[in-house]
TrEMBL record:
The enzyme's E.C. designation: 1.1.1.157
Keyword Nucleus set for record: no
Full protein name: 3-hydroxybutyryl-CoA dehydrogenase
Keyword annotations from UniProtKB, A to Z: Oxidoreductase
Domain 3-hydroxyacyl-CoA dehydrogenase C-terminal: start-end pairs: 186-282
Lineage: superkingdom: Bacteria
Family: Belongs to the 3-hydroxyacyl-CoA dehydrogenase family.
Matches recorded under InterPro entries: 3-OHacyl-CoA_DH, 3-OHacyl-CoA_DH_CS, 3-OHacyl-CoA_DH_NAD-bd, 3HC_DH_C, 6-PGluconate_DH-like_C_sf, 6PGD_dom2, NAD(P)-bd_dom_sf
Gene3D superfamilies, alphabetized: N-(1-d-carboxylethyl)-l-norvaline Dehydrogenase, domain 2, NAD(P)-binding Rossmann-like Domain
Any GO MF annotation of the entry: 3-hydroxybutyryl-CoA dehydrogenase activity
Protein's pathway: Lipid metabolism; butanoate metabolism
Ranges of residues in domain 3-hydroxyacyl-CoA dehydrogenase NAD binding: 5-183
Length: 283
């Protein structure tokens, strides 16, 4: 199936990035959010990154104009009625996501593929609330989307080969590398990454070292581009906590218990970079 028209749902840090890479690659993109204000913020972020690309000689003014012309914004899900592919990137909450998928199932054409950018929620369960479970799949982009090469493609138990193939080919058109994984809690990316971040939070909690020292150890000692605590702030501490809860519940293994300090920060509203404070303070 040829994908031409795409809707991205949620104009937060992931949705805006996903909409940008699709529009840059020539797809017709509708960016949707419940809040007009978030759509405007998302659009402003995209424009800033495109201008940076022009400044750096990675694209010219015409590419920037074409990209922006490929993009429209909407607060109505009904505008997905002519889309071939929808990528959902709303908050990491199962109730919110299943409601969105049930509505999309009614609105979108029968051939449309419904994908989720969820970090850890079960794609099989999301697929099961629709009448087209074979056309539901995980299309997990990494943050920051315009920079990171990976798309982790998660097959629900119901996903067909044809759906997988269309998504893998679409990822290639975005100049990304698709890696196929099966649907288990945290998939591969967050099953491996998030326990490391959680362990870094435990090292703060237990007074082993200050956040700066922990990050320095991992940057200089392991060549990570960012230390785990700065990365946690960058991802969002609420998202990190949700992922640890999914791992803990999904495997029933105490090795995945979220650190109490992580929960305390989230309860305090210290969500990382997006709220101005997490393990670090942001101006
Ligand atoms: N959007 C678009 N471009 C961005 C960006 C953003 N949010 N942040 C940085 N960039 C670009 C910059 O434009 C810059 O290029 P130019 O200077 O040429 O314009 C380039 O990336 C490098 O940026 P910086 O020099 O500011 O900083 P850096 O060298 O530290 O790189 C980074 C930034 C790419 C984010 C790097 O620190 C990095 O790779 N960090 C780790 C990211 C990571 O692990 N991501 C996965 C998170 S987990 C996930 O996504 C899954 C999940 O479900 C939670
Ligand atoms: P975010 O909080 O930055 O953005 C979420 C956006 O969704 C907000 O603008 C919100 O208004 C909107 N929204 C909420 N409910 C909606 C609805 N019913 N319809 C339309 N829009 C709605 O979150 P984010 O960090 O962009 O994460 C989005 C998804 O991507 C989550 O599932 C998250 O787990 C996943 N993810 C996050 C990262 C990361 O590093 N932050 C990486 C990969 C995947």
């Amino acid at each position: 199936m040829a994908v031409e028209k795409v809707m991205v749902i949620g104009a937060g840090q992931m949705g805006a990035g996903i909409a940008q890479v699709f529009a840059q690659s020539g797809f017709q993109v509708k960016l949707n959010d419940i809040a007009e204000e978030n759509l405007q913020k998302g659009l402003a972020t995209i424009e800033k990154h495109l201008s940076r690309n022009v400044e750096k000689g990675r694209m010219d003014e015409a590419d920037k104009t074409n990209t922006l012309n490929n993009l429209e914004t909407t607060t109505s899900l009904n505008d997905a009625n002519d889309c071939d592919l929808v990528i959902e990137a709303v908050v990491e909450n199962m109730d919110v996501k299943t409601k969105v998928f049930q509505q999309l199932d009614q609105i979108t054409p029968k051939h449309a593929i419904l994908a989720s950018n969820t970090s850890s929620l079960p794609i099989t369960d999301i697929a099961a609330v629709t009448e087209r479970p074979e056309q539901v799949i995980g299309m997990h982009f990494m943050n920051p989307v315009p920079v990171m090469k990976l798309v982790e493609v998660i097959r629900a138990i119901q996903t067909t080969d044809e759906t997988y193939q269309t998504i893998a080919e679409t990822a290639e058109k975005l100049n990304k590398t698709a890696v196929e994984v099966n649907d288990y809690p945290g998939f591969v990316s967050n099953r491996v990454l998030m326990p490391m971040i959680n362990e870094a939070v435990y090292t703060v909690f237990e007074g082993v070292a200050e956040p700066e020292a922990i990050d320095e150890v991992m940057k200089l000692g392991m060549n990570h581009p960012m230390g785990p605590l700065r990365l946690a702030d960058f991802i969002g501490l609420d998202t990190c906590l949700s992922i640890m809860e999914i791992l803990h519940e999904g495997f029933g293994d105490s090795k995945y218990r979220p650190c109490p300090l992580l929960r305390k920060y989230v309860n305090a509203g210290w969500l990382g970079k997006k709220s101005g404070r997490g393990f670090y303070v942001y101006e």
